[in-house]
Amino acid sequence: MAATTTETPAPLLHSTVLDWYGANARDLPWRTPEASPWAVLVSEFMLQQTPVKRVLPAYAAWLERWPTPAALAADAPGEAVRMWGRLGYPRRALRLHAAATAITEQHGGQVPEDHAALLALPGVGEYTAAAVASFAFKQRHVVLDTNVRRVFARAVTGVEYPAQATTAAERRTATALLPEDTATAAVWAVAVMELGALVCTARSPGCGACPLRRRCAWQAAGCPPYEGPARRGQTYEGTDRQVRGKLLAVLREAHGEVPQARLDAVWPDHVQRARALDGLVADGLVEPVAQGVYRLPQ
Q1: How far apart are the C-alpha atoms of 104 and 22, rounded to whole Å?
Q2: 197 and 203 in contact (C-beta within 8 Å)?
Q3: Residue 179 to residue 250: CA distance in whole angstroms
Q4: Which helix (H) or strand (E) is 128 found in, with range?
Q5: 44, 79, 160, 170: which one is catalytic?
Q6: Is the dihedral of CA 276, 280, 282, 288 positive or negative?
Q7: Burial label, 192 (beta-carbon count in 10 A; 0-12, 13-18, 19+)
Q8: Strand (E) positions, the chain?
Q9: In degrees rounded to 5, what are phi and psi of residue 245?
Q10: Which terminal CB of the chain, N or C, has fewer other CB atoms within 10 Å?
Q11: Is 79 a catalytic residue?
């Protein structure tokens, strides 16, 4: 069945979603009035590909240790990797440390408000720059994450899932739906994201509880199944990613140099283990100190 496009006026969509958000938004620490722009930036790095429930304790511990960018920049990048713990995708820790260093050296220790300046920070891409500008500084920007894209795909375009990569058509849709009022636009950005996270989920969407169910193009079309390329789930067991995690766990717990023998003990396949360790070194997450001796980056 061909995709349809909702004809619901944008102001009605805005009021419906914003009213729902006002009644159902989660109480998250990076959304409080007291949350600094640095706290928002930290949350955005941590929330990439990681569920909120796993982020919450790591976020609190991180800000307790490094409440400002300058505090993190003054510490070794390896300490950022250590504190990252089991959040996954630890290169994010190095990128956050690099961003903190740039903020300290180039912006007087203050997270910049300007969108272009945010985008120029290490590890900050289009989504993160727009999210921080919107959530921390209440600016008007299109914020497109996986949750937002899924809501727009279903409610506006009438398909179950968006394309695997963000398209120009999606950006046009998001731009057209962005409220003109700056303050409203900032709330709209997080409200649509929350709707995707809590109701319009990837699996088993709660359509019965969705505020847009009577205006949803996908519902109106009879909820046609996804017809795009196969959506592959991420695997972990037995992958190089799992081996990398085990190697990093040893280094995080050591608080010093680690001999090759301790790393060899974490995984039986020596070829895969060597490949994973080489990858960690290439990514800057591990430093060789001497032949057969490793540590977190200093």
Answers
A1: 36
A2: no
A3: 49
A4: helix 126-135
A5: 44
A6: negative
A7: buried
A8: 258-259, 287-290, 293-295
A9: -65, -40
A10: C
A11: no
Question: pLDDT in tens for each of the 298 residues of the chain?
Answer: 344 444 668 999 999 999 999 999 999 999 999 999 999 999 999 999 899 999 999 999 999 999 999 999 999 999 999 999 989 999 999 999 999 999 999 999 999 999 999 999 999 999 999 999 999 999 999 999 999 999 999 999 999 999 989 999 999 999 999 999 999 999 999 999 999 999 999 999 999 999 999 999 999 999 999 887 776 666 788 899 999 999 999 999 998 999 999 999 999 999 999 999 999 999 999 999 999 999 999 9
Task: Please state, in angstroms and rounded to a whole number, the distance separating the CA atoms of residues 82 and 73.
Answer: 15
Q: Residue 158 has which token pair?
A: 């009438």
| pTM confidence score | 0.90
Q: Rounded to whole angstroms, how far apart are CA atoms 200 and 210? A: 7
Instruction: Go through the chain and tell me how many residues it has.
Output: 298
